[in-house]
Amino acid sequence: MATGIKVGDEVAITATVRRRVTEDRVSVSIPSYGFPHSIVDRTSKAKKGQPIELVGDVTHIDGEWVTVNLGVPVTVNLDTLRLVTAYKPPTRKAPLIDRPD
Q1: Backbone dihedral region of 55: left (phi > 0), alpha (psi from -120 to 50 degrees) or beta?
Q2: Which residue has the higher pLDDT, 42 or 77?
Q3: Is the pLDDT of residue 18 over 80?
Q4: Residue-level pLDDT at 93
Q5: Rounded distance, CA 30 to CA 81, Å?
Q6: How confident is the model at residue 95 (pLDDT cuts 50, 70, 90)?
Q7: Does the pTM of the predicted model rise above 0.85?
Q8: Cα(3)–Cα(52) distance, rounded to whole angstroms?
Q9: What distances in angstroms separate CA 47 from CA 13, 32, 44, one per listed residue?
Q10: Which of 10, 22, 57, 62 could form a disulfide with 84 if both were Cys (CB 3.0 to 4.6 A apart)?
Q11: How many CB atoms lie within 10 A of CB 22?
Q12: SS3 string of 19-82?
């Protein structure tokens, strides 16, 4: 599902809403991540059991484990990720060679 993911890529994780903590914050369960995670959810009124998509950038890859920055670093299994946008390094407009004056 998530082959070819590299550092810098933008990826999505599908999490499940566990419960509403406050009026603007929900607790979510992220697959293969053994800790509860809370996100700010002001726009939608997510209900318990509803899937929600979290998007972040890949910061570290260690075999089949990938660290994604979702505001805080979250380390999940590679199979739980979906590639949104591949990282493209910036291109240079001017060559690195100095021009003789």
Answers
A1: beta
A2: 77
A3: yes
A4: 84
A5: 11
A6: confident
A7: no
A8: 22
A9: 18, 21, 9
A10: 10
A11: 9
A12: EEEECCEEEEECCCCCCCEEEECCCCCCCCCCEEEEEEEEEEEECCEEEEECCCEEEEEHHHEE
Here the tokens at position 68 are 């994604």
Q: Extract the tokens encoding 14.
A: 């599908």
* pLDDT score, position 82: 94
What pLDDT does 3 receive? Answer: 65
As a residue count, the chain comes to 101
Q: Which residue has the tokens 């979250």?
A: 74
- First CA to last CA distance, the chain: 54
Lookup: tokens for 25: 């914050």
Of 2 and 58, the one with more pLDDT: 58
- Spell out the domain ranges in the chain: 10-85
Residue corresponding to tokens 């990720």: 81
